[in-house]
Amino acid sequence: MTQPPPPPPQQPPQGGGFGPPQDQPPQDQPPQTPPPAAGPNLGKAPEPGYGYPQAPQAPQTPAPAAPQTPPTPPQGYGYPQGAPAPQPPQARQGPPGYGYPGQQPGAYGQPQQAPYGQPGYGQPGYGQQPGYGQQPGYGQQPGYGQQPGYGYPQQAMPHQPQAGQPGGGGKFNAQMAIIVAAVVAIALIIGGGVWYASSGKDEGRQNDTAGVSGGTGGTDDDNGGTTSGKEKAPSDPSAKVLFQVPAPEVKNDSTVVVSGSWLTDKAYVKSGIAQIVGYDRDKGSELWKLPLAGPVCQASRHVTDDNLTAILYQPAMPTKADPSHGCSQIALIDLDAGKKLWTKTVKTGDQLINFDNITLSGKTVAVGSTSGGAAFDVSGKLLWSPKPTDSCYDAGYGGGEKLVAVRKCGSYDQRQLHIQTIDPKSGKVISEYKMTEGIEYASIVSTNPLVVAADVGDSAGDGSGISDFFSIDSKTGKLRTRISAPGEQFAARCEGITRVEACNLLAVGNDRLYLPTEEHDGTGKYSQTNEIVAFDLATGKQTGQRADAGDGYTISPLRMDGGNLIAYKRPPYDKGGQIVSIAGGSFKQTTLLQNPSTESVRDVETSMSPEYSEFLYAEGHLYMSKVYASKRSTVREKEYLAVGFGTG
């Protein structure tokens, strides 16, 4: 539809290079950030003058600690030994607790150089994009104790966005912060890092990171149960390991993107190195294998009613001589048959466009980049592509129930983002909301209801990419409300750099935004915990609902299930993780799945975190998988690409 303006100052050039930046944080594990000593100060306003993280150092392993001792957990799966260690931005003070990343260097599998398939700074073709986002939330149910920071709802922000002010240090530092942020942000690669399965075809067939849309007002039964959702608690929620998929072999020192996972009625489908494989949901036996010419770069988390999805991939395998071929190949995949239905490319002049993101809405596959956006019908028909006469360009799209474009206009230092709900068949603009000039990046959290996240004035302060959420009426383009989200208080993230749909650790449903608080001290010695709280998308105020993780656990939203919220509880050192359903009205928790607490199983489970791995849950089945494959630095315990758990 569009043609991009000239590259902004101090931004990487456009072209074909790919691979996340050097020294990025771990993909499957969160960067080390010491927890706060007490509950979040929910009334504190964002600090000005900050925006994006410090340069990363070494990956950390979030293995929980043992009792009576400050945690020094063993290195988990997924990271290279001896890697230089990442230091998070604005590290919080306070003793580490159970379940929080320790001080050890990370273990195998963490990229030490740019993975194939992901745009990287310093290589031609990487667009200008900065860090990922942080979610707001606060919350106190009536009568909740005296923990600091809880008890009073925040005030909704004015119905007009405030102009973003540059962070401390002036324009030069802000631009440098953007580049540094991207180094960290790209670690939340392809698909927002965590994707979740839809519980039914009538809900848009989404494997949603945020489970972004879905409940529209589910009701509880008389006991505050979960009658509005499709996921029912089994008679015994105890789960067992169904299967483990070994990590693919990487023969050189590179790191390869293996992002993308989906669930169908019959198969668990996972990307490997230049291939996509369908596995039996219960046995893990291989049902089909689809070879690709090169590694997967990006994968849509959405699935059509007939189990079609879309990916971006490279046209050839990288080599030492030619380490990147660009993410120019757009493909439609049949997840039932294990077939590639078509592959398309788009050009500007004689040059292939290397795309940054891909999504699916209805029967439309949409791709965005700094060269503009394009779309195809599932039949393969081109619907639109960049126009040479356009002065603005579609940087990316959010899919699912509706199709929303993040359209960039103006020069880098006078950028204005247009959030456009568009007709997925024609590209015609249905409604438009213009964000305040100066906001360079925005993420689509949900398309129905329409929720956008942005780091206004680079003020999030923690590299999460979000200082504010914008609830927008997709029919009129008018702002409903704006929710301030102090970065130090809430734990969700949005990348917003190249992939506008890459948000995780949050959910939208029942016209509410569900967010986890940051970890804080629990009741046990060294223990950590957190909560999920809810915001009303009409008023911007807290609803008073709150779900506690429980001492030693941390809780993360996965997706909606009708009017209920599905969440994952990362366990303390001596327990297995849990999947719970949280009733949309009462917020009562029902355990759907309880993983084994044996050490060997815990080691595999805690090697994959909801921040930096792919999680899928449906019908008593939980699947976790990694998004990078790397050569091991030493020989040690076996590593896994994916693991499946199941009840019954």
Description:
With 648 residues, this protein is mainly beta. The chain has 2 helices and 40 strands. The chain has a 4-stranded antiparallel sheet with strand order 1-40-38-37, with helices on one face. It has a 4-stranded antiparallel sheet with strand order 3-4-5-6, with no helix packed on it. Strands 7-8-9-10 form a 4-stranded antiparallel sheet, with no helix packed on it. A hairpin with a 6-residue loop joins strand 18 (403-409) and strand 19 (416-422). Residues 1-114, 116-206 and 208-226 have low confidence and may be disordered.
Overview features:
648 residues, mainly beta, 4-stranded antiparallel sheet, 2 helices, 40 strands, globular, disordered N terminus
In short:
The protein has 648 residues and is mainly beta. It is built from two helices and 40 strands.
Sequence-ordered SSE layout with sheet pairings:
Layout: H1 170-185, E1 239-246, E2 255-257, E3 261-263, E4 267-272, E5 275-280, E6 286-291, E7 296-299, E8 308-313, E9 329-334, E10 339-344, E11 347-348, E12 351-352, E13 357-361, E14 364-368, E15 374-377, E16 382-384, E17 393-398, E18 403-409, E19 416-422, E20 429-434, E21 442-447, E22 450-454, E23 468-472, E24 479-484, E25 493-494, E26 503-504, E27 507-509, E28 512-516, E29 520-521, E30 528-529, E31 531-536, E32 542-548, E33 554-561, E34 564-570, E35 578-582, E36 589-594, H2 599-606, E37 614-618, E38 621-625, E39 628-630, E40 640-647
Antiparallel strand pairs: 1-40, 2-39, 3-4, 4-5, 5-6, 7-8, 8-9, 9-10, 11-12, 13-14, 14-15, 15-16, 17-18, 18-19, 19-20, 21-22, 22-23, 23-24, 25-26, 27-28, 28-31, 29-30, 31-32, 33-34, 34-35, 35-36, 37-38, 38-40
